[in-house]
Amino acid sequence: MKCPFCNCAETQVVDSRVSEEGDTIRRRRRCTACDRRFTTYERVDLMMPAIVKRNGTRADFDPSKLHGSMSLALRKRPVSATALDAAVARIQERLLTSGQREVQSDHVGELVMSELRQLDPVAYVRFASVYRSFEDLREFVQAIDEFRRADDADDPG
To answer: In what residue span(s) does the ATP-cone domain sit (predicted)?
Structure first.
C-alpha cells in the first residue's frame, strides 16, 4: 500500500479491526519513510458476470431487474418475500460461482424458471409464457405438461 502523503511503497500495518457487519477490515497503517499514519478499508469486490442479451448486446447484471421479473410472475401468489429474496440470492450465487465473465440471458432465464418451478407452479407458467413468447394456448398446455412431468419425476410416490 502506497503512502498517500509521500507515495512510499513501504507501509506497516499498526492495527486491524473487522467492522461490526463483518464485511470490511479497517487497517491503521504507518509509513516507514515519513512516519505519518493513515487508515485503509478492505472489502471483497465480487464481479458479477455481464449478461449477453439475445440481440448480442451486453448489460451489467442487475439484481433488481431479476427481483422485479420474478415478483411480477409471483404477483398475488402465496409466496413470501423472504422466499423470493432467497431465490434471487441463489441465482446470484450460481452466477457468481460460475466463474464466467459473461453469461447468456437464456441461461439466467433458465435459472429463474428453475427457481420459480420450486416456488409456485402458476408463477412458473406465467414466467414461461413471457420468457418463451407463447403464441397460443397449445404452448401453455405444453408448459403445464412439462411441469407435471418434471413434478412426477421428482415425486417417487
So the answer is: 49-139
Output the CA–CA distances (angstroms, integers) from residue 32 to 4, 16, 17, 77, in the order listed: 12, 17, 21, 62
Give the whole-angstrom CA distance, residue 118 versus residue 102: 26
Q: Supply 35's cell numbers.
A: 512516519
Q: Nine-digit cell at 10?
A: 513501504
Q: Are strands 102-104 and 50-52 parallel, antiparallel or unpaired?
A: parallel
Could you tell me the CA-to-CA distances from 66 to 26, 50, 84, 124 in Å, in that order?
33, 14, 10, 14
Closest by Cα among 34, 27, 25 to 3: 34
Whole-model pTM?
0.63
One pLDDT digit (tens) per residue for the chain, 157 residues: 899 999 999 999 999 999 877 878 999 999 999 999 999 999 877 788 999 998 999 999 999 999 999 999 999 999 999 999 999 999 999 998 888 999 999 999 999 989 998 999 889 888 887 777 777 778 777 877 777 777 666 665 5
Radius of gyration, alpha carbons of the chain? 24
